[in-house]
Amino acid sequence: MTALLALAGAGAWGVGDFLGGLASRRLPVVTVLLLSQLAGLAGVLAWALATGERLPGPAEAAAAVGAGAAGLAGLAALYRGLAVGAMGIVAPISAAAPLVALAVDAVRGVTPSALQWAGVAVALAGIALVSHEPARPAGAGGRLAAGVGLALVAAVGFGLFVVGLDAAAAASVPWTIALARATSVALALAATLATRTRPAAPRSLLPLLLGVGLFDTGANVLVAQATTTGTAGVVAVLSALYPLVTIALARLVLAERVRAPQRAGGLAALAGAALVAAG
């Protein structure tokens, strides 16, 4: 059950990220975030109320709120990165989120295992490889591929999101997701007001934004539930496979092509993230 939930969550995240990247190529990122996050909030609140579960305690609620803030920052960076860069480059780098959980464990005094150190080395090598894009003029040095910095910010945000989710979900999965989503909506609204962005979209794009919200919310629910039935390491390994879905959709729908060394780097980044989580 844990594997099925985590894999389903990875698939939903992958589709949601692809749709979010498409939407962010046509609309401001803050608009995509606000409207897509709103799309899932009502359903999540209704689900939480219907379960009759009690609200989490202060510590768990704070973790859920922190997860919502970190997740929104990660999504903002990812959507913008997918809009300005190749999805086959940006998505794998964002999957380095398990390295953040490893760093949190290290701060808590948990020593990384040999397998995790190997995963860090493989992931960093993969990120370096996938991030490098040769310059076109003859004799010129290479340059950083578009969207790489944003992808790294997304990885940090997603890593902190999973850490917060794991800390809060044991108290109540529905209320953890509801609190996290309410936080992300509030922050997206604040960003919209601060940037004086008109929170509107053409009617033709509303189904796309609805899809972003539903897939992202569904993934959050599935991954949170998975953390209550299995170990966080297994969940992190399987849910970190979401870039494979994003990359496949980019190849099939957008006919996006990525250089062979960068494809190898993307696979290495995913493999390194899996080793870190498995360790």
List keywords for this structure.
279 residues, globular, mainly alpha
In DSSP terms (H or I, runs of 4 or more residues), the helix count works out at 12
- Which stretches are poorly predicted, pLDDT < 50 over at least 5 residues? 137-141
Helix content: over 70%
Radius of gyration, in Å, reads 18 Å
The description of the largest β-sheet is: 2 strands, antiparallel
The fraction of residues assigned to DSSP E strands is under 5%
The helix/strand class is: mainly alpha
Termini separation:
21 Å
Could you say which overall geometry the principal axes of the C-alpha atoms support? Answer: globular
Mean pLDDT: 82
Strand and helix map with partners:
Elements: H1 2-24, H2 29-51, H3 58-84, H4 87-94, H5 98-107, H6 114-131, E1 132-133, E2 143-144, H7 148-168, H8 173-194, H9 206-229, H10 232-239, H11 242-254, H12 260-278
Antiparallel strand pairs: 1-2
Describe the structure.
There is one protein chain. The chain is an all-alpha fold and 279 residues long. The protein has helices at 2-24, 29-51, 58-84, 87-94, 98-107, 114-131, 148-168, 173-194, 206-229, 232-239, 242-254, 260-278, and strands at 132-133, 143-144. The chain has twelve helices and two strands, in the order H-H-H-H-H-H-E-E-H-H-H-H-H-H. Strands 1-2 form a two-stranded antiparallel sheet. Helix 1 crosses helix 3 and helix 1 packs antiparallel against helix 9.
